Amino acid sequence: MHRSDKAIILYAMKDNRYSINALVAALEKDDNVDVDVYIIDERRHTLLIDFLLRAKNIYKKIVLGISFLTTQIPYIEKLVDLIRKYTPGITLIAGGPHPTGDPYGTIVKLGFDYAAVGEGEETIRSISKALSEDMDLEEVCGIAYFDESLGKVVVNKRSWLVNLDSYPPFPYWRGRFNPIEIMRGCPWACKYCQVSFTFKANPRYRSIDSVVYYSRIMLREGLKDLRFIAPDSFAYMSPNGRSVNYSALEELLSKLYDLTLRYGGRIFYGTFPSEVRPDNVDYDVARMVKRYVSNKSIIVGAQTGSNRLLKYINRGHSVEDIINAVEVLSKVGFRVDVDFIFGLPGETREDLEETLKVIEILVKMGARIHAHTFLPLPGTPFADAPPGKIPKWVRKRLYQLLGRGFLYGDWLEQEREAELIDWYRRQKIIFTGRDLSINTKLKYCK
User: For residue 232, how many other CB atoms are within 10 A of its CB?
Assistant: First the structure.
């Protein structure tokens, strides 16, 4: 039953459902929402269109929020066309990694009315307030819009960061759950990655009490696997996000372990949807984590086996750190999956040969390789770089590893996605750093 004549509808796709859950949790945490809020789970276009058609008969104003990645642009293009054709008059707001990195292309080329830039919890609450009070959405902090008088997209950029403890990680009252985000922001600013540039370099943490509180809710509701989101799981509660806070990490894991003993359940830590940095791995942290977790494997982010390239992409660790991390984790009893990215900007044949040598060393140590292809993502220092491409001779070696059972990943699909991103850039549908300096104007909110 609807309570208002205004509605916010959020479209939950497979790759953005965690983000949508977080937005709804932020909106409804006070149970004081002055607009009706709906989540439409992705099935096919027609279900969303049918719902929007029905909603238009009920509500005077409707905001449809869609969060998406750069790789989803072909789908988003078609979806926006359908919405504009069959349900004109609905306000479209884009959010997530791509709109944050490319607000201009999102609004001017993809056809959204607004783009939510950066962290969304407080922005969605401000949108709800503005909608309920019939205020102009152009005044909302965290919103980008096209200014006709300037001929540019104006970004109302927030000057403050979200406190994770201020909001639930998911709307459990709706029966919706996801891995708990325990850390946001990353100090390393790797040139290929959007995290530091979307969520800033200053890491923030969900407190131990908060993590335990929401973990207890999950276990009580019958969800038995506890999983967590962090750019580096071993850096939880580190003062600078660059090291291990042994006491805080053990306190977190021990309290979670006590919960699993009481309610039943398992802890998965340092594995999907997170990983660990190799330079934060030592015997003390590995043995400590092993005491509490149920996962048999841990994911280590290596990215390349070339020290020269590691320095160039700003990884902040060495090849020696990678080998040491695999050795330590393997001896403690974990199977180790190691991430590598092929086709990175500036990568030479010599870099590739060094990477393949390191991979063979790791495989002999019992590791599996998780292969990726570089994607030039908007909002990163490598946004203007050529798409990642894997040479035939390297591809042959990867197939051999795949056949031996030592390699997995979506590297072939990502190579096609990288080419598609490049095509969209050349068609001026995606805009990158140097384009945005011309086409956008930043206006900071205090």
Answer: 24
Q: Residue 92: what residue type? A: L
Measured over all CA atoms, what is the biggest interatomic distance in the chain, rounded to whole angstroms?
64
pLDDT at 318 over 70: yes
Q: What SS3 state is found at 333? A: coil
Both tokens of 373, joined, read 């292809």
Per-residue pLDDT band at 196 (split at 50, 70, 90): confident
What distance lies between CA 436 and its chain's CA centroid?
Answer: 22
What residues form DSSP beta bridges with 116?
A: 143
pLDDT in tens, 322-333: 999 999 999 999
Q: Cα–Cα distance between 115 and 103 in angstroms, integer? A: 6
Question: What are the start-end ranges of the E strands in 315-421?
Answer: 335-342, 368-373, 407-408
Residue with the two structure tokens 């990726």 = 372
Query: Is residue 196 packed enough to be buried (19+ CB in 10 Å), middle (13-18) or exposed (0-12)?
Result: buried
DSSP 86: H
Give the separation between CA 192 and CA 378, rounded to whole angstroms: 10
62 bridge partner residues: 7
Provide the pLDDT for residue 433: 79
Using DSSP bridges, classify how beta strands 36-41 and 6-12 pair: parallel, antiparallel or unpaired. parallel
Q: Which residues, 6+ apart, have CB-to-CB distance to 243 below 8 Å?
A: 235, 280
- Percent of the chain with pLDDT strictly greater than 90: 90
| Residue 357 phi, psi dihedral angles, 5° rounding | -65, -45
Cα-trace Rg, the chain: 22
* Of 338, 326, 325, residue with least CA distance to 299: 338
Q: Which helix (H) or strand (E) holds 146?
A: strand 143-147
Distance between CA atoms of residues 174 and 188, nearest Å = 36
363 SS3 class: helix
| Preceding peptide of 74 cis, ω within 30° | no
Q: Count other Cβ atoms within 10 Å, centred on residue 174.
A: 13
Q: What residue ranges define each of the domains in the chain, with the CATH number in brackets? A: 6-161 (3.40.50.280), 169-435 (3.20.20.70)
d(CA 436, CA 109): 13
Q: Which tens digit of pLDDT belongs to each residue from 159-185? A: 789 999 999 999 999 999 999 999 999
d(CA 439, CA 151): 8
